[in-house]
Amino acid sequence: MIDKLIAEKAVRINDIVESYLPPADGFNRTVCEAMAYSVEAGGKRLRPMLMEETYRLFGGKSEVIKPFMAAIEMIHTYSLIHDDLPALDNDDYRRGRKTSHVVFGEAMAILAGDALLNYAYETACKAFGMGEDIHAVASAMCVLAQKPGINGMIGGQVVDVEMTGKELSKEQLEYVYENKTGALIEASMMIGAILAGADEAKVAAVHKIASDVGMAFQIQDDILDVCGDSALLGKPTLSDEENGKVTYVTIHGIDESRRYVTELSERAVRELEEIGGDNEFLKELVIWLINRDK
Amino acid sequence: MIDKLIAEKAVRINDIVESYLPPADGFNRTVCEAMAYSVEAGGKRLRPMLMEETYRLFGGKSEVIKPFMAAIEMIHTYSLIHDDLPALDNDDYRRGRKTSHVVFGEAMAILAGDALLNYAYETACKAFGMGEDIHAVASAMCVLAQKPGINGMIGGQVVDVEMTGKELSKEQLEYVYENKTGALIEASMMIGAILAGADEAKVAAVHKIASDVGMAFQIQDDILDVCGDSALLGKPTLSDEENGKVTYVTIHGIDESRRYVTELSERAVRELEEIGGDNEFLKELVIWLINRDK
């Protein structure tokens, strides 16, 4: 049931995100095509979904959320394009599709990533012209600029890259999870709350919930890599072990990892209930995300 | 005289830009060091200089310009780091200094470029908290997001990369010049005008002036490559010819190029005078930029 609902919402979100992509009809055609190629490659659209559902939780009803939904997905996509580059993970396939540098060449993939990051801000700026509370839009913009950056996603990515093939400490691993995975989930939910006019205390509460969700989401990823069904996952399992990768599971063991995911999950749901508001789907989405089998 | 004044102003601008760089003291230390390495590599600081002087022309007097000055230089620097990468221009040296990927490796150079682009927006967002007119800051943010992007700098860069080794048409060459070089100069001057509270007509006038300045600046670069003094320039001349590069000079000839630079220069200065205001240095800076011998 929840799977079907998530899939339906993802289709609607695809339309929103794609409606903000630039037309590929000028001298810059190739980069626009490369941007669209990667954005349209699919994915769960979790970040814009969490953003929109948090926005609704706080009673948000306007279109102002849409450019931010598109922007967060563009930032997520740029990070995947650059992550897949030969100098980084050197992945030729993602979700069964050739990666950007395989299709467009390395130079264009670098530029397409740059272009998506930049265009995310250009897209979010459209929200300034929508007649909504300009202070809320400005606050949302600040979160959109901060969380993907050096004290957020890029910070986590840097440590991940530097420590490839080395022993990550517990603290470093936590830093990578909090930032590489967690930061964009935090940005998504915080922006939803901010744009709906939530006060500072509520935004802080959402921040904490999102942080738990991000951490649990990533640890569940590690658990699935060990215990998941590769047919359901659509990718091979045991890849972390094969790559000699330090994960939460290799450090803390499978039982402790499961226990911690449950703890984070219960806390996130409890705090979501404490916030109040009316969005049963968001609660179910959070539970699904954390306890998913794919 | 003007040379000395420009050099003095550049020193002050260096301090401003560097004051906005992040501290390199956390797990993300390496990327912060890589960001600083490239920002501190020097350069004329023309973009923040043009921004600040245009801000003064319209009577701007507050600190709000500073985060934007830092941001535009970060964006310029990121574009150089990515431009120098092996997959793009493959340059090991810039201004006599090893480029980012040579010092930090290719993966970190890609991330440092991403980080600078992202941090530019994070830095500019600090202007929202400075108590100035929030509508002006939002407008400035929109220009900062638009001009470096696919319909600006990246667009020009894409065509430049795609056409390497091929015959550029006149229209393509103009597109590259307008965007790869011109767009950030336009952003700089427009943001200065917007933050100082200039009205729409004045911002449009500044846009046009900046477009002329950018075009003349780039054509002068081509002229210097043919006729300049390599000792003054600090780089070898005739590199365009050697690389079989199509430039304004190779298409239109040296006499027409000089004539056009003079036309653009005279028009820019005349329009700057028509705007009024009081900034003799900005006028001299524009003349120097366009007619420079280095």
Automatic annotation (TrEMBL), chains A, B:
PROSITE patterns: POLYPRENYL_SYNTHASE_1 (PS00723), POLYPRENYL_SYNTHASE_2 (PS00444). Signal peptide: none annotated. GO terms for molecular function: (2E,6E)-farnesyl diphosphate synthase activity; metal ion binding. Its EC number is 2.5.1.10. Pfam families: polyprenyl_synt. InterPro entries: Isoprenoid_synthase_dom_sf (IPR008949), Polyprenyl_synt (IPR000092), Polyprenyl_synt_CS (IPR033749), Prenyl_diphosphate_synthase (IPR053378). One of its GO terms (biological process) is terpenoid biosynthetic process. It is an enzyme of class 2 (transferase). Keywords: Isoprene biosynthesis, Magnesium, Metal-binding, Transferase. One of its GO terms (cellular component) is cytoplasm. It catalyses: isopentenyl diphosphate + (2E)-geranyl diphosphate = (2E,6E)-farnesyl diphosphate + diphosphate. Its cofactor is Mg(2+). CDD domains: Trans_IPPS_HT (cd00685). Belongs to the FPP/GGPP synthase family. This is Farnesyl diphosphate synthase. It comes from Coprococcus eutactus. The gene is ispA.
